[in-house]
Amino acid sequence: MSDRYVLAVDQGTTSTRCILFDRRATVVAIAQGEHPQSFPRPGWVEHDAARIWRDTQRLIKRAMSAAGIGPDQVAALGIANQRETVVLWDRATGTPVAPAIVWQDTRTAPLLEGLDGELIRARTGLPLATYFSATKVRWLLDSIDGLRSRAEHGEVLFGTMDSWLVWNLTGGLHVTDVTNASRTMLMDLSTLEWDDELLATFGIPRAMLPEIRSSSEVLGVTEAGMPIGAAIGDQQAALFGQTCFAPGDAKCTYGTGGFLLMNTGTEPVRSTHGLITTVGYRIGSGEVAYALEGSIAVAGSLVQWVRDGLGLIGTASEIETLAATVRDNGGCYIVPAFSGLFAPYWHGEARGVIVGLTSYITKGHLARAVLEATGWQTRDVVDAMNADSGLTLTTLSVDGGMTADNLLMQLIANFLDVPVVRPMVAETVSLGAAYAAGLAVGYWSDLRDLRNNRHSAGRWLSDMDGARRAAEYANWKRAVASAVFYADR
Questions:
Q1: Which of 184, 226, 257, 404 is the most exposed place for a label (fewest CB within 10 A)?
Q2: Cα–Cα nearest to 450, from 80, 29, 24, 27
């Protein structure tokens, strides 16, 4: 058994990676490739699903080749995926009928008008927003001639990226898991089934929907003979990879956006402070673990904008060096509402602002304000999460590419006034998919087995005075009000 491994496929917004893990959760091999995003119109974001499938095939082979193993040495394969992104494909040919509409896409805003937001939130735990899958599916059915009729006859299938990859890996198995289904605005959060009233509300035929399964169970077998032991949304996979198995455990993944999830136990906590109630994970036929989630639309993508749009830095990692040239932000705050504000505000028409500009401000101050924007947005979400859950965050586990920025980690610890902990294995999305898949086939025995693999690589404690923290947070809130005011003019 020592020469067997678990393979994780992490299909993300800008890249796909395949990682092999051993029993100690050590990375044995990794293969990664970026894929292009298309922006054909303002607010539109699209992917080529066929390209993503080709990349996935190539990267699986590359990872196994790097480790010198074959499919027979893969105990299980787990998939984590960008959530809410919609793929529609032809059942007979397996060909996408249109570009995939990405979670960031806002073209469907007009379809939200007149919908019963209270009904949708009560059934799904989700606010009425373009973020989720249902309006994307509706838009495609309404926009492509003949597509609705074909969908009603089961000739066209819908899936998020997990469904798309499982379909291709197995040669035609059409399934999803409870975490991805919970992000569509079509699943009842209590029954874990597709809801007929919601399907009617959005005009989506049941015949095109996948079967809902658990996050950790053997879904099927690939054509190469590898058991698929897990499908799980990427942020829930990070929660799992961070071993947040107890109520109150929380993690935040800092990548293109920022995604903070708190395990709230076996009963859903209905948010009254602008958060999302969602499924955290389900292992086999066991009880569901629910979570509260706060989504930050712009985190790492703000650094990319400073690099590519403004040209202030040459590489993303330079933002920390530039920000460290000053002691504070000089009174400058950046609210990166490039596509509106997500949690806890949910103001889709808000637009980005830079406030507090004076002749004193240098590019160092702007760089620091860029990092602080991620920290303050995290504070917004944590405050809402504490209020909703009745729990108090005591430690924040972090992961994602931005956690390599030590200054950012210190700023987050300062703004939250709690320890921030970075794990030894930074690829927690992939690790979570691997853990869930390994559990399904007995590669790991139980959750305690997974916790024993956890080791910290970094820990940050607040060194910020409480009065200063309060004053700067008040300044941040005024900057957010400016972003909303701009939209409401």
A1: 404
A2: 24
